[in-house]
Design goal:
The chain is α+β, with helices and mostly antiparallel strands and 557 residues long. The protein is 37% helix and 16% strand. It contains 13 helices and 15 strands. The strands form three sheets. The protein has an eight-stranded mixed β-sheet. Strands 11-12-15-13-14 form a five-stranded mixed β-sheet, with helices on both faces. Strands 9-10 form a two-stranded antiparallel ribbon. The longest helix has 50 residues. It is elongated and about 115 Å long.
């Protein structure tokens, strides 16, 4: 029976062919470092992290990422137990043959360590095991790897995967020196490819801020301290025995945090987070599939794309799965696909049967994943959908009422200052105001109905109560009292009186300009000027037309 042979292409698939985004190297190496820290804590080598329900005790484990763009150099180092000298080669030479356990460890396939080869010329792993005085080093020559794979592509020479690995790997050891940590593991990417500038945050960013933004949500980092609802999230997780892994992760010495905040930018201006809500997802057999939290806002509109916290993010072992919109299509009631962008929050997959695929872009398909999706869809479409839909509806009503108030005030001021040019102009503006008044009346009634019956959303009354101060108390004779005013009384009605005679409007334009003219002459001049001014106002913006009319008046005096 012939032997099985794996060609050079398998190395290409596990490196350049595995990931579309080069930044995944951080996720893969951070994931491996987290596993080592977990193991070191269990063995008492590092002080254990603890959750106390308020803010976490981060323990002693630490992951440091060092970036040197000018030198085209990146290193990711942890202070965990390291790898024993006599196990170092066998451990790193194993590919897709990991001893990690699904459901216990954050990575388990044993392929992530090779991902850096696609983005540099040399990949180096260095480690010192606790209690040993020897440092182990393994170097991978990425240029040699590409050369041999290219030969295979061009049919110049056939290479097996084993041939490529043997040709590209070098192993060595050295005595530990004073500057070496007592125990560590470090991955170094040397001479980063020119086309992979995004590994440093991109050419247009200084101080790697863009990369830190990316890692703040992808990596298992703690919430930043000024996100005041983090204590509620920690408390909920502790009270419900939900595991919540967080690690100290630093970029060039600066610790990164999940950048959730209480002020967010939406398509209708700023909105605020004024609470958090939680939900557990329980399987039909009673086991926990996952749980989530989301920020309670006024849901005025979709959160803007530049706000990096937007979207319900899916996580496993507190490491992000896919992109920020990976659960977007589970909002099946929304054809626009924008539902997910109304929320901030996180969904933590818990079940050990929810297994991330090799690219960590989603979960492998199995019955548990299908059940988990079903539970999410039910909650998204029968709870979250009504929350953002009614929040948006309340916002639209408030905008209509506000628009009427502003128009009514402008109408009254224009009437008082005699700025209507003629009866036609007056009636035109009055009809516009009347239409806005009717829209405002409908909006008032809709808000009143939502307040009375609580709406379809579990947060409707909370949103209305929070936005009470934003709802104007103006009304017309046809509008009901503002049901949301503190004393349930409206302001003085702003109802413009219809000017039955156009003479008074015309008269205000010319009386102070031609005091020596008789009544008949003033009437003729008023009619003529009214037409001229009407044309000017409808042919230019307000500032320009006002200036032209003012100059005409000054010249005619």
């Amino acid at each position: 029976m012939a032997n099985n042979t794996f060609g050079a292409y398998i190395i290409e698939i596990l490196t350049a062919g595995m990931y579309q985004d080069s930044k995944v190297i951080y996720r893969e190496y951070i994931q491996n470092a987290c596993n080592s820290i977990d193991k070191s804590e269990k063995q008492g080598i590092l002080r254990v992290r603890k959750q106390n329900g308020k803010s976490p005790d981060m323990g002693e484990g630490e992951i440091n990422i060092w970036l040197e763009p000018n030198k085209r150099y990146i290193s990711i180092e942890d202070n965990a137990m390291g790898i024993k000298v006599d196990e170092f080669q066998s451990t790193l030479r194993r590919t897709a043959d990991s001893d990690k356990v699904i459901g216990e460890d954050k990575g388990f396939r044993g392929i992530g360590k090779l991902c850096g080869l696609a983005y540099c010329k040399q990949l180096v792993f260095t480690s010192r095991y606790t209690g040993e005085d020897t440092v182990s080093i393994m170097s991978f020559d990425a240029l040699k790897m590409r050369e041999m794979i290219n030969e295979a592509h061009k049919k110049i020479k056939r290479h097996s995967a084993e041939d490529v690995l043997e040709a590209m790997i070098e192993f060595s050891t050295r005595p530990a020196i004073k500057s070496d940590s007592e125990h560590f593991f470090k991955a170094e990417l040397i001479d980063i490819n020119a086309e992979n500038e995004e590994l440093f945050g991109g050419k247009d960013y200084n101080n790697t801020e863009k990369l830190k933004d990316y890692l703040s949500f992808v990596a298992p980092a703690p919430y930043q301290a000024n996100f005041i609802y983090r204590s509620e999230i920690y408390k909920y997780a502790k009270e419900n025995n939900h595991k919540f892994d967080e690690y100290v992760i630093k970029v060039n010495g600066e610790q990164i945090f999940k950048k959730y905040k209480t002020h967010i930018k939406t398509g209708n201006g700023q909105d605020d987070v004024f609470g958090v809500k939680f939900q557990d997802f329980i399987a039909d057999d009673g086991s926990l599939l996952g749980w989530m939290w989301f920020g309670v806002t006024s849901f005025k509109a979709a959160i803007k794309r530049e706000d990096i916290s937007r979207g319900l993010r899916l996580r496993k072992e507190n490491i992000q799965i896919g992109e920020e919109d990976v659960v977007r299509d589970l909002f099946t009631k929304d054809s626009s696909g924008r539902s997910n962008s109304y929320f901030i929050g996180e969904i933590f997959a818990v079940s050990s049967d929810l297994i991330p695929n090799s690219q960590r872009s989603y979960f492998n398909e199995n019955p548990i994943r299908i059940e988990f999706e079903s539970k999410l869809k039910d909650y998204f479409n029968n709870t979250l959908h009504h929350i953002y839909y009614e929040g948006s509806s309340i916002n639209a009503s408030i905008k209509k009422i506000t628009a009427f108030k502003e128009s009514a005030e402008e109408f009254a001021k224009k009437k008082e200052e005699g700025k209507f040019l003629n009866n036609e102009d007056f009636e035109k503006q009055e009809q516009i105001l009347k239409a806005k008044g009717e829209e405002a009346e409908k909006a008032y009634k809709k808000l009143e109905k939502q307040k009375e019956n609580g709406g379809k959303s579990i947060l409707t009354l909370d949103i209305i109560a929070r936005r009470k101060k934003e709802i104007p108390t103006v009304s017309t004779t046809k509008l009901p009292l503002n049901p949301f005013a503190a004393d349930n009384k409206s302001d003085e009605t702003i109802e413009p009186e219809h000017e039955t005679s156009s003479y008074k409007t015309r008269k205000t334009l010319v009386d102070d300009m031609f005091p020596t003219k008789n009544k008949k002459e003033r009437k003729l001049l008023a009619d003529t000027l009214a037409k001229i001014f009407f044309i000017i106002e409808n042919s230019a913006d307000k500032k320009t037309s006002d200036e032209i009319i003012k100059r005409i008046k000054e010249e005619l005096r």
